[in-house]
Structures are given as C-alpha cells and as structure tokens.
Design goal:
binds zinc ion, 342 residues, Arginosuccinate synthase, two-stranded antiparallel sheet, 5-stranded parallel beta sheet, alpha/beta, Rossmann fold
C-alpha cells in the first residue's frame, strides 16, 4: 500500500507525475481547492460586491468551477456578498456545444445546492442568427471558416452582451492548465506575439477588443485529469460528448502533442503557462490601447471592422445589427433581465 506523501496517513489514490507525489483523494482535492483560491487571491479575481457570471458549457471544467465558486462563497473563502450567475449559450449549430449539456439536471443540481442562479441564452435570440446560419452563409460565399472559430468569436461577444444585460462585473470560465498551455503554443506557432497581451489571469489591463467585462480563469493552474477525478468524486458525471467539429480544431491535435512532450518534461504545461504570463507582462507594455471603433457595431476594435461584423459580413448577414436593435427595443419594457441588472 502506497501512503499519501502529503498527510502520511491515508492510502494514496493518485500519482502526480509532475511532482512525483502520491496523494490520497482528500489531500488531492484540498490541494486543488487551495490552488484555485491562491489564483483568485493572488490576482484579486473576485472582490466584495462582484457580480460574477460563470460560463457553463456542460463539460466537467465549467461544472467544477461552478461547484468550487459556490462552495467558496458558502465557506466565506470568497466574499459572501458575491453574486453568482451561471449561464449557457446555445450556439445553434446542429451539434452545438450546448447540446453536450444533455445533463442540464446536473447543472441545476449544483445551482440549487449553492444558491446560484442559472440561465440559458441562444445565439438566435442575441444575434437573430444561429452559428449554422452563419456557417451556411460563409460556405455559400466560398469561405471555409471553421465552426469553432464562428462559435468562439460569437460566444465571446455574446458573453459580453449577456454580462452587460445582467450587470456582471466579471465572467469566469473553466479554462484549465491544458487549455492555457495550448494557447501559448498556438500563439507561438502562429507567430502571434500580440496575442500574449491578453494572456494571463489578471483582469487588469484588458486589451482584447471583446473583453469589456473582464474574464477570469480561476482553474487555470489545475490539470485536466485532476479536474476529471475531482468531478467524478463530487457527483459530476463525466459526459464529455465532444463537439464533432473539435476533431479538426488545431487545439485537438496539440492536446496529444503536449501529452507526448510531458512524458519527457513533466512540468512542461506549467512552464508554458508561466512563460506566457511573463511574456504577457512585457507585451502589454508595448501594445497600444485599442482606439478604433468598428464602423458597423461601434465596439472597440483594432481594425476598421471587428471580427464579429467581419464574420456576419462575409456570410452576407450584416443585417444582424438591425435584428439586434429590434430585439433590444422589444425587450426593454417587459424585460426580466433589466430588473436583475440593477
Ligand atoms: Zn493525504
Ligand atoms: Zn463590429
């Protein structure tokens, strides 16, 4: 029997290759929670009075995030007056990431347990079009844009729109160390130094055109497989129905490349993220603040036309702007959103 190298009492159930430790589940979970709390405190991710949105995809990461933030608030480890709103966005493509959430009941269970509000939104209601509409428009114009790009660009803007409607001060996502390490690799491989300006944990110095409401990533130093174990033992089933588009997403291949590299260098993910954080500090100093405004939607953008409008324009659906205006006007008098935003 291998004994836990932390407590020296219980039987170890998990070997952490990066440190060579063998841990019991108790120590593993406590350490993971401590790591998340340290990230929150070190970068002051959540302050008293914050209204934090939790972006829920239905995957284990965002559910563990929801569980931990609910738990920390109950324990007073983050301010008890923090308002938490979990939300999901239905992209509306045939295999929408939203439909991975075949287990909405689990999301609701966590929400009920910790008194977290939960709402769902749809691209169709926000933009007047679904991701499938845009993809179809792009195809018909001979543009081969990856579905993950469409969903990614529109989801970021949607989070901002939802956040504004609900008076959110931060939006938390379930990104883990694997996601973050992949981002560093992708930025390097794409020779995209500027993108490092918006890499990191801190909501300060936001320069991303889409990041009006600061994004926070409390789980960014947790490893994916440890999150999976945490989820399993906290009643969160692993129902990773992968979006079928993911298999052609460059991130997907990188996952395996990183896993291979990790065999020779167990700390590689941590090193990559730490390198990205340090580089980010340097790059931020040299990046000019965004001063342009998109000529169509008015969002700050480094270019004449922002990425969202560019996609709609290329798909021949730029009338989304008038659809959004109409939706805004219709909503105002009876909106339940308006009442919670105050
Ligand atoms: Zn232990
Ligand atoms: Zn625009």
């Amino acid at each position: 029997m291998v004994i836990c190298s932390k407590c020296g009492k219980r039987e170890a159930a998990f070997r952490r290759e990066s440190s060579g430790e063998s841990l019991c589940l108790n120590c593993l979970f406590r350490e993971m929670e401590d790591t998340v709390l340290k990230t929150i405190r070190r970068y002051q991710l959540i302050a008293s009075g914050d209204r934090v949105g939790i972006a829920v995809s239905g995957g284990k990461d965002s559910l563990v995030l929801m569980h931990m933030l609910g738990l920390f608030r109950r324990q007073g480890k983050i301010p008890r007056d923090t308002y938490l709103l979990a939300f999901s966005v239905n992209e509306g493509q045939p295999f929408s990431c939203f439909y991975r959430m075949s287990r909405v009941d689990i999301v609701k269970k966590i929400a009920d347990e910790y008194g977290i509000e939960y709402k769902t939104f749809a691209f169709k209601d926000i933009y007047g079009y679904t991701a499938a509409d845009i993809s179809q428009g792009l195809w018909s114009k001979g543009k081969n844009t990856h579905m993950c790009t469409i969903c990614g660009v529109l989801r970021r803007r949607a989070m901002n729109i939802i956040g504004k409607q609900h008076g959110l001060t931060k939006i938390a996502t379930g990104h883990n160390i694997d996601d973050e390490a992949q981002t560093v690799m992708l930025n390097v491989m794409g020779n995209d130094l500027k993108r490092f300006a918006w890499f990191g944990a801190t909501p300060e110095n936001e320069v991303d055109e889409d990041k009006f409401i600061p994004r926070i990533k409390p789980l960014r130093l947790l490893r994916e497989e440890e999150i999976a174990i945490y989820a399993y033992y906290h009643g969160i089933p692993l129902m990773e129905l992968e979006c079928p588009y993911v298999y052609t997403n460059p991130r997907y291949k990188l996952k395996f490349t990183l896993a291979k590299m990790e065999r020779d260098n167990p700390n590689i993910k941590y090193s990559l993220v730490s390198f990205g954080d340090n580089l980010s500090k340097l790059v931020r100093k040299g990046v000019e603040p965004t001063i342009h405004k998109c000529k169509y939607c008015g969002y700050p953008s480094s270019r004449e036309v922002c990425r969202v409008c560019e996609l709609f324009q290329e798909a021949g659906l730029l009338d989304y702007l008038t659809k959004m205006e109409r939706a805004d006007k219709q909503e105002e008098p009876t909106s339940s959103n308006a009442s919670t935003a105050s």
